[in-house]
Write a structure and sequence with these properties.
Blueprint (H helix, E strand, L loop, with lengths): L1 H8 L5 H7 L13 H7 L4 H6 L14 H4 L26 H15 L2 H11 L13 E5 L15 E5 H12 L15
Antiparallel strand pairs: 1-2
The structure holds zinc ion (2 copies).
The site of one zinc ion has 8 residues, from strand 2 and helix 8.
């Protein structure tokens, strides 16, 4: 299984791109409703990408189960990776926050739009990454799915307004720009 998993990630994807598709986001102060949401946004997903057969050429990871990503641990510790020991009747998660955190991480990598939009909008503070507009924002894959940016972590998402999104998509796929660029007239 290990060998197979590696094959999905490595051969066609240069390391530079792989790093763009999943890395822990740089820290910044954010206003989030719950502390566990902070844990989601600044989570380092590298271990998950190394371990699971995530298909970077696919938007949705329908072949992947939640339990594959956060398996039961046999050592009496929480499955979310927080490092806390289970106590009482707890079998899998130390607290509900642990399971909410894990479900959100899974939802993002799995390609679930609700989770992705929520965290991308929060992290990027609802402005277009290019022109800073606040209207008609869309979540954009920085490395497009077609080029190996699918199944990505939050690090491969940005917010773009409609206009910037159209021009980036044209550039990504080499499509013809609708308007020819006019030469700038210089006043003398
Ligand atoms: Zn936990
Ligand atoms: Zn824009």
């Amino acid at each position: 299984m290990q060998e197979e998993q590696k094959q999905v990630l490595t051969p066609e994807i240069p390391e530079r791109q792989e790093r763009l598709v999943f890395f822990a986001l740089p820290f910044k102060k954010l206003k989030l409703k719950y502390p566990w949401q902070n844990r989601v946004i600044f989570f380092d997903p590298t271990e998950i990408y190394r371990r699971l057969p995530i298909n970077l050429y696919q938007r949705l990871q329908t072949h992947m189960a939640f339990k594959d990503m956060f398996p039961d641990r046999k050592d009496g510790f929480c499955s979310c990776g927080c490092g806390e020991p289970l106590s009482g009747r707890r079998r899998r998660w130390v607290s509900d926050d642990c399971s909410k955190f894990a479900l959100a991480v899974w939802g993002i990598i799995d390609g679930q739009v609700g989770h992705i939009e929520y965290y991308v909008a929060k992290y990027n503070q609802r402005v277009c990454a290019i022109c800073r507009a606040r209207r008609d924002l869309k979540v954009d894959h920085i490395v497009p799915v077609k080029h190996g940016g699918g199944g990505c972590w939050l690090s491969n998402f940005q917010l773009l307004c409609h206009t910037c999104h159209v021009s980036k998509t044209n550039k990504d796929f080499g499509w013809k720009q609708k308007k020819a660029e006019k030469p700038i007239k210089v006043k003398t």
